[in-house]
Amino acid sequence: MYDVIVVGARVAGASTALLFARNGYRVLLVDRAHFPSDKLSTLYIHQPGVARLAQWGVLDAVKATGCPALDRAIYEVADIRLDGCSIAVFGERAAWAPRRYLLDKILIDAAVAAGVEFREGCSVAGPIFDGDRVAGVEFRSAYGGSTRERATLTVGADGMRSPIAKGVGAGYIHQDPLHTCTYYTYWTGVPAHFELYEAPDRWIGVVPTNDDTTLITGYWPQDMFDRVRADPLAHYLENIRTTAPQLHERITAGGGQRVERLYGTGDQQNFFRQASGPGWALVGDAAHHKDSITAKGINDALFQAELLTQTVGRSLHDPAELAERLARYAMRMRDELIEGYRNTLGIARLEITPERLQLLRAISTSPRLVKRYFSTVSNAISVEELYDDELHAALDSLSPIGGTR
Ligand SMILES: Cc1cc2nc3c(=O)[nH]c(=O)nc-3n(C[C@H](O)[C@H](O)[C@H](O)COP(=O)(O)OP(=O)(O)OC[C@H]3O[C@@H](n4cnc5c(N)ncnc54)[C@H](O)[C@@H]3O)c2cc1C
């Protein structure tokens, strides 16, 4: 009998297991994958997520992998260029972008060091029940054969298609259509900062990472997915060439070499699920998934791990108190993440509206506003906070909105 079983051992699950163990609980962490292993994802961790990694004592291990500090961000759209960085969050000014096979293993190692029992290569079939209450999980172990383990709380950190969510019948609280599709790969010989380039129906993201490589990712509207996947490399290079011509020039003139195959997906769902119930909770993509264009998933997963473990606190073995706290976790999680979700959907529409261009043009007039803008991108301040007297004055000083697309 465990206090907590966590299914899924990447950013959401390993962090949740780590923090529950540090709260003194007996924790089992299972994953069907073997580690270290990669996963389909780009890598950017915004400053609030970095601050959590620092508070948990794992940021030094991330830095030791050799990925560079990302303390300068560039965003270009139409004739506008923003060049700056988010404000620091708890002293962390830089973002970081470690390869996922490194980050996920660092978190698992920290969880194991905190006393978590970790079993890899274990595929969970679903939750087991005592009446209507989840009482643990059934899984097929790495050595074959079916095993059942019981716990007071079962946490599904098992990704967007969460078998735990399916097993408990967690419904959708919010659901929106698919917006984009994306392909990315890694390059050498392309020195870069964190860079974003936007054009109508196109988006390019640039993220320096480990081994002096640079991840470059391209986005298209969802309805182009069949066309793009028919010849992803041609569409990817064309997207870079037309959306970010200077980046394309840097690749071709500087002898940039593509060092991995293209990775891509057209299935980036947008939803919040019911995130808790009797004896169970969901964290990470299992609870809430959105388009990857704003690179918020890791950040949000670390936030959810902290929120769940802090909300449960010492009350795991008080059934009435636990039920109340799990409900509170689900409500706060949605309340805290809904604004970022709506902003992500706004960007993922890949539409450059006159209002947004006017806002960005006003922001580009002042380094302070640029810093505050990138602080909304990192989630360090809210969009509401961005609209201060200086921004209103800059907007007032611009001519009326003209046509754009
Ligand atoms: C193309 C793309 C780009 C992205 N770029 C970024 C970015 O730059 N920055 C960012 O912050 N986020 C990004 N994200 C989002 C980010 O990858 C996710 O939000 C994050 O990985 C979620 O972590 P998680 O731990 O919740 O789930 P996952 O990383 O999906 O991990 C789930 C784990 O559960 C395990 N599992 C599933 N089913 C079972 C089972 N039945 N039994 C046992 N184990 C099981 C899986 O093996 C897996 O290891 C991107 C996503 C995509 C698709």
The CATH H-level superfamily of the largest domain is FAD/NAD(P)-binding domain
Which small compounds were modeled alongside the protein? flavin-adenine dinucleotide
Average pLDDT value? 96
The helix tally amounts to: 14
Tell me about the biggest sheet? 8 strands, mixed
- CATH T-level fold name of the largest domain: FAD/NAD(P)-binding domain
Summed up, the domain count is: 2
As a percent range, the share of strand residues is 25-35%
Basic shape: globular
* Helix/strand class: alpha+beta
Q: Indicate the CATH architecture of the largest domain.
A: 3-Layer(bba) Sandwich
- The helix content is 25-40%
Tell me the radius of gyration.
Answer: 22 Å
CATH class of the largest domain, named: Alpha Beta
Overall number of strands? 19
N-end to C-end Cα span:
60 Å
Low-pLDDT residue intervals, each spanning 5 or more residues: none
Question: Can you tag this structure with a few keywords?
Answer:
single chain, alpha+beta, FAD/NAD(P)-binding domain, D-Amino Acid Oxidase, Chain A, domain 2, 2 domains, eight-stranded mixed sheet, 38% helix, 26% strand, binds flavin-adenine dinucleotide
Please explain how this structure is put together:
With 405 residues, the protein is an alpha+beta fold. The chain has 2 domains: 2-43 and 99-176 and 269-347, FAD/NAD(P)-binding domain, CATH 3.50.50; 180-265, D-Amino Acid Oxidase, Chain A, domain 2 (2-Layer Sandwich). The chain has helices at 11-22, 47-55, 59-64, 100-113, 163-168, 225-230, 232-243, 245-253, 297-312, 319-348, 354-363, 367-377, 383-386, 389-397, and strands spanning 2-7, 27-31, 73-77, 80-84, 117-120, 123-130, 133-140, 146-156, 172-176, 180-188, 194-199, 202-208, 213-221, 257-258, 263-265, 270-273, 276-277, 280-282, 288-289. The longest helix is centred in the last third of the chain and has 30 residues, at 319-348. The model has no long low-confidence stretch (mean pLDDT 96). The protein binds flavin-adenine dinucleotide (FAD). Residues 7-13, 30-33, 39-45, 123-124, 157-159, 163, 182, 265, 268, 284-286, 292, 295-299, 301 line the site of flavin-adenine dinucleotide.
